[in-house]
Amino acid sequence: MQRIITTERPNLAGVAAEHELEYIEGRGIIGWDESAYYQFTQRQIEEDIQGPSEEIEEMCFQVVDRAVSNEEVLGRLGIPEFFWDYIADSWRKGERNLYGRMDLSYNGKGPAKLLEYNADTPTTLYESAVFQWEWLEQAMKLKLIPEGCDQLNSLHESMVQTLPQLGIEGLSHFACNQDIEDDKGTLAYLEECAQEAGVETCFLGMEDIGVDDQGCFTDLDNRVITTLVKLYPWEWIMAEEFGRQIPSSGVKFIEPPWKAILSNKGLLALLWGMFEGHPNLLPAFFEDDSAAAEFINTGTYVRKPMLSRQGANIEIVHEDKTLEHSDGPYGNEAHIIQGFQPLPEFNGGYPLLGCWLVASKAVGLCIREDRTLVTSKDACFIPHVVLD
Amino acid sequence: MKFRKSVSTILMVSVSVLALTACEEPKVDASIFKNLEQCKGDPLTTSGQCENNFKEARSQHAAVAPKYSTAEDCQADFGADKCEVAPYKSSSGGSIFMPLMAGYMMGSLLGGRGSMMSQPLYRSTKSPTSFSTAENRNVGSKTGRTKVASSATSRPTFKSSTRSRGGFGSSGRRFGSSAT
After folding, report:
1. Taking CB atoms and an 8 Å limit, are B3 and A386 in contact across chains?
2. For chain B, which terminal residue's Cβ has fewer other Cβ atoms within 10 angstroms, N or C?
3. pTM, to two decimals
4. Residue B176 falls within a domain, yes or no?
């Protein structure tokens, strides 16, 4: 695995404008860095990234299958009781998943290790699917990268192919928190994919959703919502005022409710519990488990809230010294303890690999690089190539 | 080339974005009538087509028309004497109100395709001379054969009456970005 310095394309301001990405004079495209790229061999991609990601996905399904009929596990994950039957039903009915992104620590040599699974509301979808691809084509044309470069990237077609297979009928509503530009951007791209797949779509803010006398959800035109593609986490929905209305609302959700079991970092403890010793897993325990105390005593571990996002509230302890302790609003949550697999360092940057799964197939890769071992929302997206 | 996706796909994405912004929406043929009699008087439609389409539109009307919990609210949007009681009750047992059906629209009858989808139309106080679909898409004031925006002919959806709003979103305000 190499990190190779290259030249940026000319007129990045124009490129950014075309894709509605933020560009600041002197700083470039915000959140994107094409002055370098990562290079992998085909074998590394197939055997170290794609294969293991799909294998972990299968293991996750086994975790879900066991968890849906286990009240102790559902309670431990913090899922409210009124949601238990609803989640179990959605799994048993075979409600289909669309996408997710597994975050991996990988240095090109040993097996990749799963740090967490963004199974519900993954971001950087547009950059991964479209922007990174266009960079590849243009960089090759401009001879900024060698001829014959490929990329782990069939994200766009996979999304368009999978959307019609989810059983969506009629109008599909797309919702997120309207105040977050990044979320709106990701959602707009999801909508484009759906439209290309022949799905009728419309957008609304999560806060605009209403409820009628029959317990159905409505949009601002009082249309009953029958399908909701939500870029809004299950754990937030379950805790909010309208959460209780969900089980009887008749809405088809993307991602389906059973994903709430996987988008929780408690998943890592459940995976270790079922598949201890698997080469792509790190040891992981619920913090109140006795095994967690033993692990903490080794002096090297990572402590993460079960429901934190974007690298918030993560503590890395190495040989009894705190290496990193990121800020955030999730400090009051239940935590897990995980083994420490440091991200590799390249030129002072730490790349985190995100393997995209669409319909459970590994079809995309994104790399986000931060200046610290914890990857935060300040990390930059760095493109990659596959070249033997 | 195992990983590479087709070039045409990336072009399609860019083109579709352009299509939405730069091009005018395509129009399709449609026939609009205030009532059954007007349709029957149109030389381009048969009596049978008029009746079938009228029945189809009427059968959708109660479900797809906008709903209001008071007659006043309905009349504010559609005018005095332009509302009726909907065949639904609120959970508190109260009445629900909806606008009267002001007309109906059916697909082009060129080539004898008499089985086109038909849908009810309404007239609001905001645009009293033109017709709107149940999705609030304006289809103009012309009756008989006309041209309407393609998207305006999409199948109307069931309209409910919202009891309360805003029961989602509070965590988003607390924590910031939803996505990871």
Report:
1. yes
2. N
3. 0.87
4. no
